[in-house]
Design goal:
six-stranded antiparallel β-sheet; 68 helices; 40 strands; 45% helix; alpha+beta
Length: 1935
């Protein structure tokens, strides 16, 4: 049985649990779970990060932890009872974990690894905290380290800033908003600008000395040197090196590393250096041979210098290699570092080319304790401390130091009877009072322990040596008295013995008789002669002698006159000893009472460091004097006390204040002093007003804090001693003192008068007195003192007077003092404080200080409230205080925030920070105040307004301020905690104020402005990024919901409620609020959407009532939807919700139909916008993006008629095309905008990237841009037409300069047509099936224009890449409904063949292929593919009997190319071609191909005869399928004729074609014989022999008469093809006749490939295809049968052979479908009948029918040698230039070149293109008729300029099928350049060329293009049935 748990509430998962049992909950190790119930070893509960999923899990998998349960019961929450830092660490690491993995995915490797290290570090620290074995200090350090790391990670990952106090997270509800703001700001500031550090330390690690000439031990000395003052700043650091140049004691790191401590910021200058002196220990000369003696000398080696400033810029982790220099002259050794610094190159040189000192140098910042924590390893491993000479910038009490530094400067010695100068060495000893040497008290420097003696350098043969060696004597204080330092001088002989011979000594005592130590400075010591060591044994002998020449008596001329001297410099750094005699005199005042006056006077001249050394003794002395002689010395003692107190205000000595406090509390004993102190203080105060010089008085008042401390402590001591006597007298004295103070404060001061300054000094010091007064007086009494003192200040203050600011500072300190915390004192002080604050804030003065005061007050109120949560004695007090503050400051606070927010921000960074701070402070104060307000406060506030206008102003103010608070820039972006608190306060306040809004500003008192501001505030509130919980991490979302709920829903409900109250006033907000409310509904919160969407129904209803429609609502909805959804708002769920809610709402409305229409329109727009947004998220431009944009663009144009949006999307599409380098499509796209403009001078406004300009200028710019893109896309024909149009414009304005340029551009485009190669694109049909496709693709089929060089397999792969989840269908059958409705994506792709519209151009003889290629693949509406199938029983011997072809023709909605690379299929037409008709088509196509090749050969268009050879060979030697015999067997047998009597004519037609083919072959062989090269003669002979065999097999001896006779009519043999007769005029010698005929080469391939292409057609039908890669290695493949081959044949119909034979791509298994009926789509080879057919014009077939039936068919007349020949010919073929036939024709051309088209529009609409230009007659047949019959047109038919016949001729498409009607029904959008058939508009002159209206314009000369214009006008009205594109409304003038 499951039992609810009592104590087992919270646990951590120890091991992963799969949850495989029933109701099992899967768990991962480390998950935290909340336990609800338990049962026999199992728990039931949920994972905290996913509380919605509950389940069971074993109890053994859970480690239970203590937890605190809130809200016990169904909605209980569990809070673990553990250190808050641990809790935060755990939750933060969980959040980081997920984000850390994402960093890896995003390839942010650097942050990934750094975060990984930090996470591991935090985990280690977490373990240390959890173990609980750390000391308190160590725990604090660890927590500080943890929080620093957490903050670093949060900042790097852009997470929220966490407010903390003492390393623990702060609950925003537990503290005041002002305090929260301060915490956030403190952490933000700490993060942004680290506080400048005043203390610095230099870490030095000596690594090694690298030099070639080592071999002796070395001593290295480091010290810091001031180059400006030329003196050392620190003592020396000393390292001993061995003979290899490495440290002598490598295991003792403290002997290699040091820290130069306590460097001030002023020491980090460029002229402060690290100086290194290197001394060698060894022989006198570096190059001497080893002498027998073992005496070692300290000799100079070298010096290195580096500037400290270089370390500030260098990488601290790198080692430094310092160059070592040696001095040229040894006597200058003491100055070598100065010479290096001054760069006196002549005095030093490099000690060796490869000599260098390897040192690690690093500057560290912060105090020494901070360094101990941060660089713990450094200190635990060992590092010596090298101190500064003297005290640091800040002297700490308790610091013990007693160091005497002695520098051996120089000496002057006599030769002593020697011929050369001496080698002098000094030995230094320290001896105590008994003459014993002090052991270990002589130190050469830090790093090495002290020694008993010190040996100086030896300078070779120098009687005036300069050593400049500093030594430290750390002598204890108690041994100073009586001790002395002895210097022994020895001559070091360089002879073999190497002895050191004593010749003199000097000494100096360390302390004088009066107790003063040796004064700092240089001392010239006397050198006493001495040659025996024994004579120095008794120091008492020489201590009686004089030691310094300065102290010699005047009568001792003997010693004064001696030349020998020795100079030292001493410097004492001691916290216990003094060199100051005045200080000693004062401390010994009782010994010399007569000197008291002088000593007190001289106290001010004594150095402060000497005073603080003896602070307690000095204070005892002063109060001792005061007690004994108060009358005589009272004033002087008081002044001395003031001097000492003010000395402690100095930053150097401020740390001694606690020493004085301790003295007052524990050591001060002046029980009677208070009387004298009060008396003297009052005496000074009374003289303030009259005194001329106020400096001393100001010093007294500055010290008033400590004076009062002494007064109060003295009085307390007196009371204790006397039992409280003279209490009243003391009170009277204090009252009198305050009366004097109030009097001097009440004096009005003008400007910066001395009295005003004195008042300011007192006010600064006054708040510090409160605490002392409270020790004796009651709270009320002290508060009274303060109120009266502050109240005595003059009320009227000069504007520039500094006293006002000081008064505010005084109030600030008062509010922050202990006095103000007491509720009793607050009652007295609060009115005073509020009055001052109100005045300052109203006048906008000292706002920073005002904010500080207000912050303190409100923080205190929150603390009081929290403190009284349990017992409520002070709750009424708190409430009253809030009431007072609201009454006094709320209004002025709102005005202040508005004022400072509207000010321009200052320029300087410091000022800007201050400006932001004061804004933030005031905002925090406002929020804190509003949060403190209860219902009662709000009621009182609203009732306090005397009029509606005042209430209105207040509401406007507070709503405006709230809008300011919501701004993103109000707080830094990572202050989410602060933003959530702000929003919580705002929504609470708005809920209170909305009631006032309803009561006071509705119905007849309606105020639009207030309501409008209210709604806008609400909308902005809901849309804030910080409230979008969906973007939060799960844990953050959970915390936010638990603490605040979803504030968006609360505000949404409030909006709905307020809207419902508006009634008829709703009309004021329609349509203005549609956009904002729509933005709210797009927020992905279901509850909010359900609340807000019904408002739109309400709006529609009210708009319907007002206007009878809701056009405004619709327009606004559509406009806003586009911008909002483009910004990423909205989703599919919203679309469905919007649709369902509104449809349900309008069910019962009278306007239901129009409402449904609006909803449907908006829903469809959303579908497209969502698709558009999803597509735009992808990286590269692909077809999906372009297709989606086209869909949206069309929707705006056709359904919504939104011109501006339409034009915007035109340009978006244009940009996409440019990015994808689809230049042709880009041109067509921009043409859409161009067509909306006219050649007029109307001004257009600035729009998108277009400047303000006239419509003419913009259209000109667009034309030029489009021409440029047509040029880049190699669509030069279209560019020519636009050039023409521009040229006409220039010509009409006589702008011949531009006209010339335009004609040249036009000419260049013609050149490019003829000279440059154009690639022929492939076309592919793509079907998108399944519900997973975007709306604009779903269950639709498209035809796509492929990229250059793109074949089917590449295209298919590209589509699968664009749709990676799609499955490729492997059949071409139309899918069934299961595929349509599937929740998947299916792609069906195969190649299709274009059906050109301009058949007349393609069929004309002599037109170069460069020109034809354009008409083959441009302006294509229709495409076709064939699928073979067998009807009935398949004859295995002859499959042609049952081989039918299913031909599908696809008609697009727009022609390709256009504004997209693909367009949707508009109509499918299916026709079945019988086996007989198929055979007729195949032979027709083969005959056409033969004729074309023969013609090209005869007209010398081909240099190589191979193509003709291959074609002849392929037809004659058709060994693969039996040749034409198979057709004979299939269709000429008796059974077939009997069973198909209706095919009699077709059988006859087939027979005729077979005979015709034989005739053409015979003629072709004759031509072949004429041109065949000698080496191919045997092949020709073989062909002739085989041809005779073929004729005999056909039963042909002589050709029938009808073949040779005049043209004969043939019936229409094919269901879709016009058949013409074959004239018998072909002979080998009739070259001219043949040249006049048209054998159009309409195959898309070059002529060399025609026969080989046809030769494979039959093989593909029978399934016996061979590999054709060799043959077609230059041919691009259009067919689906060759998916895996880039170069394969283009067969006519699909083979049934296995896929391996056909070369299909190897699809993945998931893409494989049934391939029983695969389709191979051929290239189109449009063809007309070859011979002229004199049909009646009315019987002529429209060209689109001709095109449909002219494709190559399966031809059995092919053989294998044909293929082989093809391969050879392809390799040997070279391109041939083609030219028109030289024969002149009397017939005008049927399809003119672009030069003959109309110039104002490109070409007439594509649907009737062939009809309007070729009059519906097959161009070849018409040409042939004219030529064959010899007829000529009358002369009147030939205008002076070539003119195309009008499209309205009676023979135009008269016998056409339903195709023209289809064109008429479908409105073609103006996407094609060839659809611009508008007549020329009148062209106005631009302003620059305009003629004044009063003068008659001169007659214009006739234009050279007028005739062409006439023809254009004729064509412009070519076909009244052709629909024009629907023009947009002419709003476009604004765009």
């Amino acid at each position: 049985m499951w039992i609810p748990t009592e104590h087992e509430k919270y646990g951590v998962v120890l091991a992963s649990f799969r949850g495989t049992v029933q109701h099992g909950l899967p768990l991962e190790i480390g998950d935290t779970v909340q336990i609800l119930e338990k049962c026999e070893g199992w728990y039931r509960g949920f994972i905290l990060k996913n509380p919605n999923v509950k389940g069971i899990f074993p109890s053994s998998y859970i480690h239970l932890k203590n937890a605190h349960v809130k809200n016990k019961g169904q909605f209980e929450t569990v809070i673990p009872v553990e250190d808050s830092v641990i809790t935060e660490m755990t939750s933060t690491l969980r959040d980081w974990g997920a984000m850390w993995k994402q960093l890896y995915v995003k390839n942010e490797g650097d942050l990934f690894h750094r975060l990984w290290h930090v996470m591991n570090e935090i985990l280690d620290l977490r373990r240390q905290v959890l173990v609980g074995h750390l000391t308190h200090d160590r725990m604090r350090d660890v927590k500080q380290h943890i929080t620093a790391r957490l903050d670093w990670g949060n900042e790097q990952l852009c997470l929220d800033l966490v407010p903390r106090r003492e390393f623990s997270m702060v609950d925003p509800d537990e503290i005041s908003v002002t305090e929260l703001y301060r915490l956030m700001e403190h952490r933000h500031r700490k993060k942004e600008t680290p506080a400048p550090v005043s203390t610095h330390h230099l870490f030095v690690h000596m690594k090694s000395l690298m030099s070639a000439n080592l071999g002796e031990e070395l001593e290295v000395f480091f010290h810091i040197y001031d180059g400006r003052e030329n003196k050392p700043l620190s003592e020396r650091f000393f390292v001993k090196l061995n003979k290899s140049g490495l440290p002598k004691s490598p295991e003792k790191t403290e002997r290699q590393c040091t820290l130069f401590v306590d460097l001030g910021s002023s020491d980090l200058r460029k002229d402060v250096y690290i100086v290194v002196h290197i001394i060698r220990i060894g022989r006198m000369g570096a190059g001497e041979k080893k002498n027998l003696c073992s005496v070692q000398y300290r000799r100079p080696f070298g010096c290195a210098v580096v500037s400290i400033a270089d370390l500030l810029t260098a990488d601290s982790k790198d080692d430094h290699l310092l160059k070592v220099y040696a001095c040229n002259t040894e006597s200058e050794w003491s100055q070598i570092h100065e010479n290096i610094i001054k760069k006196a190159n002549s005095r030093y040189n490099l000690s060796g080319s490869n000599t260098g000192l390897a040192v690690a140098l690093q500057l560290l910042h912060g105090d020494i304790e901070q360094l101990r924590r941060e660089y713990m390893v450094l200190f635990t491993r060992g590092v010596s401390i090298t101190r500064k000479l003297g005290f640091s910038d800040v002297i700490m009490p308790g610091e013990m130091r007693n160091d005497l530094y002695v520098t051996l400067e120089k000496g002057e010695f006599e030769k002593g009877g020697k011929s050369v100068a001496r080698n002098v060495e000094i030995t230094v000893y320290v001896l105590d009072v008994d003459g014993q040497v002090l052991k270990g008290h002589v130190a050469a420097g830090a790093g090495e322990p002290g020694a008993d003696e010190y040996h100086s350098l030896v300078l070779y043969h120098n009687n005036s040596p300069r050593w400049a060696e500093q030594i430290k004597l750390p002598i204890p204080v108690d041994m100073f008295r009586g001790s002395h330092v002895r210097f022994e001088f020895r001559h070091c002989s360089t002879k073999d013995k190497g002895e050191k011979k004593l010749f003199g000594y000097s000494f100096v005592p360390l302390m004088q008789e009066d107790g003063r130590t040796l004064p700092d400075g240089t001392h010239e010591l006397i050198i006493h002669k001495c040659e025996e060591n024994a004579s120095l044994a008794d120091c008492s002998r020489y201590l009686r002698l004089p030691f310094s020449k300065a102290n010699l008596p005047s009568n001792n001329q003997t010693l004064k006159g001696t030349k020998e001297s020795f100079w030292i410099t001493s410097f004492l750094c001691s916290t216990k000893l003094t060199q100051n005699g005045d200080m000693l005199d004062l401390l010994k005042w009782r010994a010399h009472p007569e000197r008291i006056n002088d000593s007190l006077s001289k106290l001010k001249e004594i150095d402060g460091s000497e005073i603080v050394k003896f602070l307690q003794d000095t204070l005892d002395t002063l109060f001792g004097i005061l007690d004994e002689s108060s009358q005589r010395y009272g004033l002087k003692v008081f002044d001395s006390l003031v001097h000492i107190i003010n000395l402690l205000q100095d930053s150097k000595f401020q740390h001694f204040k606690p020493v004085m406090d301790t003295y007052i509390e524990s050591h001060f004993a002046g029980a009677l002093s208070y009387r004298d102190l009060i008396k003297v203080l009052k005496w000074y105060v009374d003289r303030i007003v009259d005194a001329e010089h106020q400096d001393h008085i100001q010093q007294v008042l500055k010290a008033s804090e400590y004076i009062f401390k002494y007064i109060i402590q003295s009085r307390r001591l007196f009371s204790l001693a006397t039992g409280g006597q003279n209490e009243e007298e003391f009170r009277v004295c204090i009252h009198e003192l305050f009366m004097s103070i109030r009097f001097f404060l009440s004096q009005e001061s003008k400007g910066t008068s001395p009295v005003g300054q004195t008042q300011a000094v007192f006010l600064r010091a006054f708040p510090a007195v409160y605490g002392e007064l409270l020790k004796i007086f009651t709270v009320r009494e002290v508060a009274g003192f303060v109120r009266e003192t502050l109240g005595s200040l003059p009320s009227v203050v000069q504007p520039d007077c500094p006293l006002d600011a000081v008064k505010l500072q005084c109030i600030a300190k008062t509010v922050e003092s202990q006095l103000y915390i007491n509720p009793e004192s607050r009652c007295i002080l609060l009115p005073v404080v509020l009055r001052v604050l109100q005045n300052h804030m109203q006048e906008q003065r000292d706002l920073v200080m005002c904010a500080r005061i207000l912050t303190s007050m409100l923080s205190l109120i929150k603390k009081e409230e929290n403190g009284t949560a349990v017992n409520n004695p002070t709750e009424p007090v708190v409430s009253e205080e809030v009431e007072l503050i609201v009454e006094s400051l709320l209004g002025v606070l709102l005005r202040t925030i508005l004022e400072i927010s509207n000010r321009p921000q200052p320029a300087g960074p410091t000022m800007r920070l201050q400006f932001q701070d004061v804004t933030g402070e005031f905002v925090a104060c406002l929020l804190a105040l509003l949060r403190q307000m209860s219902d009662r406060h709000y009621q009182q506030l609203l009732q306090a307004f005397s009029s509606k206008d005042n209430l209105r102003d207040f509401l406007l103010q507070i709503f405006t301020v709230f809008r300011i608070l919501i701004r993103p820039e109000m707080f830094p972006k990572d202050w989410t905690v602060m933003r959530l608190v702000t929003n919580n306060v705002i929504i609470t306040t708005v809920l209170y104020l909305s009631e006032a809004l309803r009561k006071n500003f509705l119905n007849d008192k309606f105020d639009f402005k207030v309501w409008d501001l209210y709604f806008y505030l609400s909308v902005i509130f809901i849309n804030q990024p910080c409230l979008q919980l969906e973007s939060f991490s799960p844990s953050k979302r959970k915390k936010t919901l638990e603490k605040y709920g979803d504030m968006r829903v609360m505000m949404g409900c409030e909006i709905f409620s307020m809207w419902q109250n508006l009634g008829e006033h709703k009309l004021n907000f329609i349509p203005a609020m549609i956009g904002p409310f729509l933005e709210v509904t797009l927020v992905p919160q279901p509850d909010l959407r359900n609340v807000m969407i019904p408002i739109f129904h309400d709006m529609m209803d009210w708009e319907q009532r007002r206007s009878g429609n809701f056009k405004q609502v619709e327009a606004k909805l559509i406009d806003k939807l586009d911008s909002l959804m483009s910004d990423g708002k909205g989703d599919e769920t919203y679309r469905e919700l919007f649709n369902s809610i509104l449809l349900k709402k309008i069910e019962r409305e009278t306007w239901r139909e129009s409402g449904i229409s609006l909803i449907a329109t908006v829903t469809r727009l959303m579908e497209r916008l969502l698709d558009y947004r999803d597509c735009m998220k992808l990286g590269e431009v692909d077809g999906k993006k372009i297709g989606c944009t086209v869909s949206l663009l069309n929707f705006y144009k056709t359904e919504l008629n939104k011109e501006e949006m339409y034009i915007r999307y035109i340009h978006k599409l244009y940009d996409l095309h440019l990015k994808a380098q689809n230049y042709t499509e880009a041109s067509y796209t921009l043409l859409l905008y161009d067509e909306l403009l006219e050649w007029s001078d109307r001004p257009l406004r600035e729009f998108l990237n277009y400047p303000m300009q006239s419509e003419w200028q913009r259209k000109e710019f667009l034309h030029l841009t489009i021409v440029q893109n047509f040029d880049r896309g190699k669509c030069w024909e279209n560019g020519i037409i636009l050039c023409r149009e521009l040229a006409d414009q220039y010509e009409s304005y006589y702008d011949y300069r531009n006209l010339s340029k335009m004609r040249m551009m036009e000419a260049s485009l013609y050149d490019k047509i003829m000279d440059q190669q154009r690639l022929e694109p492939e076309f592919f049909r793509v079907g998108f099936y399944g519900k997973k496709f975007p709306f604009f693709l779903r269950n639709k089929e498209f035809v796509c224009r492929g990229h250059d060089y793109e074949r089917l397999e590449a295209f298919q792969q590209r589509m699968l890449n664009e749709f990676p989840h799609a499955i490729a269908m492997q059949h071409v059958n139309q899918p069934d409904q299961t595929i349509y409705q599937a929740d998947a994506q299916y792609l069906q792709i195969y190649a299709v063949t274009p059906i050109p519209e301009s058949q007349d151009v393609l069929q004309r003889d002599g037109v170069p292929d460069n020109i034809k290629s354009f008409y083959k693949f441009n302006h294509i509406w229709r495409f076709r593919y064939d699928r073979p199938f067998h009807k009935g029983t398949k004859d295995k011997e002859n499959e042609f009997k049952s081989l039918w072809v299913e031909r599908t023709t696809l008609t697009l909605v727009q022609s390709l190319p256009g504004i997209s690379r693909w367009f949707e299929v508009d109509k499918r037409e299916l026709v079945e071609v019988s086996p007989l008709e198929n055979a007729i088509e195949v032979i027709e196509n083969k005959n056409l191909q033969l004729r074309t090749l023969i013609t090209q050969c005869q007209s010398r268009q081909m240099q190589n005869i191979n193509p003709l050879t291959m074609c002849l060979n392929g037809v004659i030697d058709a060994a693969v399928n039996g040749g034409l015999a198979r057709y004979q067997e299939a269709f000429f047998v008796k059974d077939y004729i009997m069973n198909h009597p209706e095919d009699g004519e077709k059988i006859g037609r087939l027979r005729e074609l077979m005979f015709e083919q034989a005739h053409i072959l015979e003629y072709g062989l004759a031509v072949h014989e004429k041109f065949v090269p000698q080496d191919m003669r045997p092949l020709h002979k073989k062909l002739v022999d085989q041809f005779h065999l073929m004729k005999s097999s056909l039963g042909i001896q002589e050709f029938p008469g009808y073949v040779r006779a005049s043209p004969v009519h043939f019936t229409n043999g094919s269901p879709r093809t016009c058949r013409n007769s074959v004239p018998n005029i072909i002979s080998p010698d009739s070259g001219r006749g043949v040249a006049r005929r048209s054998y159009p080469a309409v195959n898309r391939y070059s002529s060399s490939s025609l026969s080989s292409q046809a030769s494979n057609e039959v093989s593909n039908i029978t399934g016996q295809s061979e590999s054709s890669d060799e043959v077609f290695n230059m041919q691009p493949s259009p067919s689906t049968s060759s998916l895996s081959s880039n170069h394969s044949a283009s067969p006519n119909v699909t083979s049934s052979a296995p896929s391996s034979a056909r070369g299909s791509p190897q699809m993945a298994e998931k893409h494989k479908h049934s391939r029983e009926n695969t389709c191979l789509s051929p290239r189109e080879r449009p063809v007309s009948a070859i011979f002229p057919n004199p049909l009646d014009p009315a019987q002529r077939v429209p060209p689109h029918q001709i095109g449909d039936a002219t494709l190559p068919r399966s031809d059995p007349n092919l053989s294998a040698p044909d293929k082989a020949g093809s391969a050879k010919s392809m390799r040997s073929q070279s391109p041939v230039s083609t030219s028109r036939s030289p024969q002149k024709t009397t017939v005008p051309p049927f399809t003119p070149s672009p030069t003959e088209c109309q110039s104002t529009s490109l070409v007439s609409n594509s649907p009737v293109l062939s009809g309007s230009y070729s009059s519906g007659i097959s161009s070849l047949s018409r040409c042939s008729v004219s030529e064959a019959s010899g007829t000529e047109l009358p002369a009147s038919d030939h205008p002076p300029y070539p003119m195309p016949p009008p499209a309205t001729l009676p023979n135009s498409i008269s016998s056409s099928s339903d195709e023209p009607i289809r064109r008429e029904n479908k409105t073609p959008p103006p996407y094609s350049v060839y659809e611009r058939n508008n007549p020329r508009r009148p062209v106005p002159l631009p302003h620059s060329l305009s003629i004044p209206p009063q003068t008659d314009p001169p007659a214009l000369p006739p234009k050279p293009h007028q005739l062409r214009t006439g023809s254009m006008k004729l064509e412009g009205t070519s076909d009244p049935r052709v629909p024009r594109p629907r023009p947009l409304p002419r709003k476009v003038s604004q765009l």
